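Help needed: design a sequence for this.
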């Protein structure tokens, strides 16, 4: 690739850690940044992308077919995140726009959140904290506010990838939990590592004491945790979702909790996002909700920014993207 990097404009659509921006600027790229902590309005995202050669975006940017066709000139898109359901990958591939992401570096941070939410929900921690704030902690009540213990329970993992495996390792190591999982295909390596058992989706629902969701959001998985699914779960089960809110139907989840179809829930993602402050889930004693902070550690976010920048640098210097989502697009790309 023989283009002058000083002539290449990169639009960064969110306020990202400096480490990634500095990397791009040191290479000589002309980097234009959105410098407001609130998400960029769609019209401004489109306007800026039209004037640049590449886009560094986050999950808040809606990169749909209309956007991509209006910006078909883009050389590439670098996603700050492992998930990319905000991008129409099929259309990007059709137009020859390769997309990179940042897998691996947020695995531990997100698994920690899933593990923490499981414990918080099982012991009603968020709800009990609110009772203190309201001045309702008066005296010892031996039969009130009882949670459940996790030792030797069964963890069901929906989507046993990098994060799901780390969640399972934590649960097995800390509580000796039995591990079952459901993927599109079996994973013999993970089974050997964890002693995990592959089960059908219905078996996962029926057997899990804690069901932790780590799947990508796709047409196949969107809304898969609905009333029908919750009705098949144990009334003592805890539902954990740190993946994407679109995997669960929030009205159905709320009803399942209110009617005792399941026991508790821990959410780092909601449907929709952000969650409204009057959402009934926020006042349930056996529910813990966080504002999508799975990757929110300094280490993870800096590493994500580094990978996102490396994807752009490698593309323009070597004609490749280290962490590419749609390799077919590279075959269509004419540089």
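Sure. Designed sequence:
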């Amino acid at each position: 690739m023989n283009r002058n990097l000083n002539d290449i404009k990169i639009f960064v659509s969110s306020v990202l850690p400096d480490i990634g921006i500095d990397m791009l600027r040191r290479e000589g790229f002309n980097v234009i940044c959105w410098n407001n902590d609130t998400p960029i309005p769609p019209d401004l995202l489109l306007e800026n992308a039209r004037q640049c050669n590449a886009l560094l975006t986050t999950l808040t940017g809606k990169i749909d077919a209309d956007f991509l066709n209006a910006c078909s000139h883009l050389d590439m898109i670098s996603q700050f995140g492992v998930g990319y359901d905000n991008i129409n990958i099929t259309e990007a591939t059709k137009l020859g726009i390769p997309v990179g992401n940042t897998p691996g570096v947020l695995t531990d941070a997100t698994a920690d959140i899933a593990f923490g939410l499981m414990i918080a929900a099982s012991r009603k921690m968020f709800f009990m904290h609110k009772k203190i704030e309201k001045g309702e902690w008066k005296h010892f009540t031996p039969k009130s506010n009882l949670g459940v213990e996790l030792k030797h329970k069964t963890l069901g993992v929906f989507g046993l990838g990098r994060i799901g495996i780390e969640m399972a390792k934590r649960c097995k190591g800390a509580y000796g939990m039995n591990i079952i999982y459901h993927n599109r295909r079996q994973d013999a390596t993970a089974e050997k590592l964890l002693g995990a058992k592959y089960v059908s989706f219905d078996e996962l629902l029926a057997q899990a004491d804690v069901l932790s969701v780590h799947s990508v959001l796709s047409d196949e998985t969107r809304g898969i945790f609905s009333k029908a699914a919750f009705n098949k779960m144990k009334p003592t089960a805890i539902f954990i979702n740190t993946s994407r809110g679109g995997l669960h139907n929030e009205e159905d989840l709320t009803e399942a909790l209110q009617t005792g179809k399941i026991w508790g829930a821990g959410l780092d993602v909601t449907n929709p996002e952000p969650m409204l402050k009057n959402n009934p889930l926020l006042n349930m004693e056996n529910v813990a909700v966080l504002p999508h902070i799975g990757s929110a550690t300094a280490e993870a976010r800096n590493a994500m920014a580094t990978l996102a920048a490396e994807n752009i640098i490698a593309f323009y210097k070597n004609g490749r993207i280290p962490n590419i989502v749609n390799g077919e697009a590279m075959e269509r790309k004419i540089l």
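The domain at 5-105+297-332 is CATH 3.40.50.720 (Rossmann fold).
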